[in-house]
C-alpha cells in the first residue's frame, strides 16, 4: 500500500521548490484534485475541446485492430486514469482482459473510479495503483494468469512533459511494463492556432477555472494561503514552440505563504502551470524510439489527433 504521508511530504517539497524557481512554476499533476478533475471532465464536453471526442472516435472506429494488436488476457494499465471513460471503450473491445490497473496520483479519485469500472465489468479484476508516474515506478506483481501489460496513456497527456522528458518517460514505461508489452498512446497534432486557442479558452470559462483551481490544491497540499481570485489565468498557443502554455498572473502586489515560506509577487508576475506540446506523427515516433517500436497508428480524417500502438 502507498504511504500517503510520505507522498504528501514529497508533494509539499516539490511545490515549494517549483515556486522558488525563475519563473515560478507548479507541476500540472497538481491540477487533479477532485474539483480540478471534475472541471477537466466538463472541459472535455465543451464544443471547443475537440481532443476528447476525436480520440474517442478513433478508438471506437479502430477497436478491432487495437484489440488484435494488444492480444488476449492483457492487463490494461491506464496512466492518469481520470474518469476511465476511454478505458471502458478499450476494455469492451479486448479479448478476455485479465485486469484493469488505473494509475493516478489523485488517490482520492482512484477508489471511486475503480468501483465504477467494477460495476460496468463485474468479472474483471480492477487493481488501482496510487503512484506518481512522473518518476520511476513499478507495476504491482500481477500474480494471476495473464498476457502482456498494455499501457494506455490517453488524452495527449504526453504533451505536458518537455520533449526530452517525454522520451525518458516513455522509456520508463517500457521498462516498467517489460518486454513484449504494448503502449496505446493518444497524442494531439499540430494545427491551426485558432483551433487550439479556442479549445483552451472556452467561452464558459471552464479552462480558466481549471487553471486557477490548482492554487486551491496547493493550499491543501502545502499549507498555502493563495487567494485564487487574485490570479488571472492565461491559456495560449505558442506556434514557434508548438505548445499551449498555461500561466497565472498576479493581479496585484501580494505575499503568499506556502510550506512555511513567505513568497512575494508583484503585479504582473506569473506562475507557470502547464505546457501542452502538440506533435506530428514523426515526432511522436522519435520520442518513443528509445523504448518502443511502432505497430500502427490511426488518425481522424482531419488529422487533428492520432492514436499509436507500439510494442516494447
What does this structure look like?
The chain is an alpha/beta fold. 37% of the residues lie in helices and 24% in strands. It is built from ten helices and 13 strands. The strands form three sheets. Strands 1, 2, 3, 4, 5, 6, 12 and 13 form an eight-stranded mixed β-sheet that branches. Strand 2 (99-104), helix 6 and strand 3 form a beta-alpha-beta unit. Helix 2 (34-43) packs antiparallel against helix 9. The longest helix has 17 residues, at 4-20. The chain is globular and about 60 Å long. The two termini are 28 Å apart. 42% of the residues are buried. The model has no long low-confidence stretch (mean pLDDT 94).
Structural class: alpha/beta
Shape: globular
Task: Estimate the strand proportion.
Answer: 15-25%
Number of helices: 10
The description of the largest β-sheet is: 8 strands, mixed
Keywords:
312 residues; alpha/beta; 8-stranded mixed sheet; 10 helices; 24% strand
Outline the fold blueprint.
Elements: H1 4-20, H2 34-43, H3 51-61, H4 63-70, E1 75-79, H5 85-93, E2 99-104, H6 107-120, E3 125-126, E4 129-130, E5 149-153, H7 163-177, E6 182-188, H8 193-199, H9 206-222, E7 231-238, E8 243-250, E9 254-258, E10 261-265, E11 270-277, H10 281-288, E12 293-299, E13 305-311
Parallel strand pairs: 1-2, 1-5, 2-3, 2-4, 5-6
Antiparallel strand pairs: 6-13, 7-8, 8-11, 9-10, 12-13
Helix pairs in contact: 2-9
Amino acid at each position: 500500500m502507498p504511504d500517503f504521508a510520505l507522498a504528501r511530504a514529497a508533494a509539499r517539497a516539490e511545490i515549494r521548490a517549483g515556486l522558488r524557481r525563475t519563473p515560478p512554476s507548479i507541476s500540472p499533476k497538481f491540477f487533479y484534485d477532485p474539483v480540478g478533475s471534475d472541471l477537466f471532465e466538463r472541459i472535455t464536453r465543451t464544443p471547443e475541446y475537440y481532443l476528447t471526442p476525436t480520440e474517442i472516435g478513433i478508438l471506437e472506429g479502430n477497436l478491432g485492430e487495437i484489440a488484435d494488436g494488444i492480444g488476449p488476457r492483457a492487463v490494461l494499465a491506464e496512466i492518469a486514469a481520470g474518469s476511465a471513460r476511454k478505458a471502458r471503450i478499450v476494455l469492451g473491445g479486448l479479448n478476455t482482459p485479465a485486469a484493469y490497473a488505473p494509475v493516478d496520483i489523485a488517490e482520492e479519485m482512484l477508489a471511486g473510479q475503480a468501483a465504477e469500472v467494477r460495476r460496468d465489468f463485474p468479472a474483471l479484476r480492477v487493481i488501482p495503483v496510487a503512484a506518481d508516474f512522473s518518476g520511476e515506478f513499478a507495476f504491482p506483481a500481477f500474480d494471476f494468469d495473464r498476457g502482456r501489460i498494455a499501457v494506455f496513456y490517453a488524452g495527449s497527456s504526453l504533451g505536458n512533459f518537455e520533449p526530452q522528458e517525454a522520451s525518458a518517460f516513455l522509456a520508463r514505461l517500457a521498462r516498467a511494463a517489460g518486454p513484449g508489452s504494448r503502449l496505446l498512446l493518444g497524442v494531439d497534432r499540430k494545427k491551426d492556432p485558432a483551433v487550439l486557442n479556442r479549445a483552451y479558452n472556452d467561452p464558459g470559462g471552464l479552462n480558466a477555472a481549471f487553471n486557477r483551481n490548482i492554487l486551491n490544491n496547493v493550499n491543501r497540499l502545502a499549507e498555502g494561503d493563495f487567494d485564487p481570485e487574485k490570479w488571472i489565468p492565461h491559456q495560449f498557443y505558442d506556434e514557434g514552440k508548438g505548445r499551449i502554455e498555461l500561466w497565472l498572473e498576479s493581479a496585484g502586489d501580494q505575499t503568499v505563504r506556502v510550506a512555511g515560506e513567505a513568497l512575494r509577487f508583484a503585479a504582473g508576475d506569473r506562475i507557470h502551470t502547464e505546457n501542452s506540446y502538440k506533435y506530428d506523427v514523426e515526432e511522436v515516433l522519435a520520442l518513443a524510439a528509445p523504448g518502443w517500436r511502432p505497430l500502427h497508428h490511426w488518425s481522424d480524417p482531419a488529422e487533428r489527433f492520432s492514436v499509436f500502438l507500439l510494442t516494447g
